[in-house]
Amino acid sequence: MTFNIADALNYAEAGRTDQALAMLEAAAEHGNVDALMQLAVWSLTGHLVPQDHRRARALLRRAVSIGHVDGAMMEIALTANGTGNEADWPEARRLLAEAAANDYVAAAHKTLLDRMELEPDGSPATVVESRLLHADPRVVHLPDFLTPDECAHIAMVGGQLLEPARVIDPATGRWARHSIRTSDNAAIGPAREDLVVRAINLRIAAASGTDVTQGEPLTILRYQPGQEYRPHLDTIAGAPNQRIRTVLIYLNGGFRGGETSFPLLNLTVIPRGGDALMFDTLLPDGVPNPRAQHAGTPVIEGVKWLATRWIRTAPIDPWSLSAH
């Protein structure tokens, strides 16, 4: 059987969905890894087919068993974060070790992961140091939260996905570009949440006293000279599942400007690579705290890399495109 993945994608692009799916399903039945991967991705996202994470995992398993390297890395991520099944960190570690035997990317992930002090479930085995900078709202400094290699890893993962940053439009609840925020950013979604990123998200959850499922996908931001994020709140107008806490991680040094400023607190934090900053965003009654307004001041020289994780009141669906 002759099959070309580009033909199926062209049919889908032209709106000939049934024809595209028929080609993919037939090729998948014959063990074509490209067809299996495409169907798995569509089943994960709900694009052109019903969203079905269990089916996606089954398709991925078939692709990996045939030898699809990218499929193996995706399967490892989904195994760890529980997409399509219960989260299973030990199994994800086993799959990574298996992949590392033949793939240099997996081997690099394993090496970095082996340096981390982790519990059997992937959570941190040690408590991170913290220093209170302000009491109301609570602003906490976490020195050396990430190692240089960990910083480089998440910058590399996010750097492949960068696009102009957006903000949530309070009128529509949708993401949109705005002059208030001029950086580039990328969210590391669950399909790309490799075990290093997952372990870092678990570290953030432990440091913030929350469950990992409450965090939005880790977002990487890059600020070039002149770029900034003007004073703003991280809360979302009208959101039923509100952002309660923000964790910022500075991924590098060697730039000028780019401080994190809290204008109503008379507090400015100078970034240092590997350090993190955590602050609360709500008042005790659940209303957004106006004093949590903050800004990323313009970068004067060099490039600033930052990772952000916004934490919600309750668990979220990381696959949902809704801002709420």
What's the arrangement of secondary structure elements?
Layout: H1 5-13, H2 17-29, H3 33-45, H4 53-66, H5 69-81, H6 89-100, H7 104-114, E1 131-135, E2 138-142, H8 148-159, E3 163-164, E4 167-168, E5 175-176, E6 184-188, H9 195-208, E7 218-223, E8 229-232, E9 243-250, E10 256-257, E11 260-262, E12 267-269, E13 276-280, E14 294-296, E15 299-301, E16 304-312
Antiparallel strand pairs: 1-2, 2-13, 3-6, 4-5, 6-7, 7-16, 8-14, 9-13, 9-16, 10-15, 11-12, 11-14
Helix pairs in contact: 1-2, 2-3, 3-4, 4-5, 5-6, 6-7
Oligomer: single chain
Tell me the fraction of residues in β-strands, as a range: 15-25%
Q: What's the helical proportion of residues? A: 25-40%
What structural class do helix, strand and pairing data support?
Answer: alpha+beta
Let me know the average pLDDT: 93
Low-confidence segments, ≥5 residues, pLDDT <50?
none
The first-level CATH class of the largest domain is given as: Mainly Beta
Q: Would you report the number of β strands?
A: 16
Radius of gyration, in angstroms, nearest whole number: 21 Å
Number of helices: 9
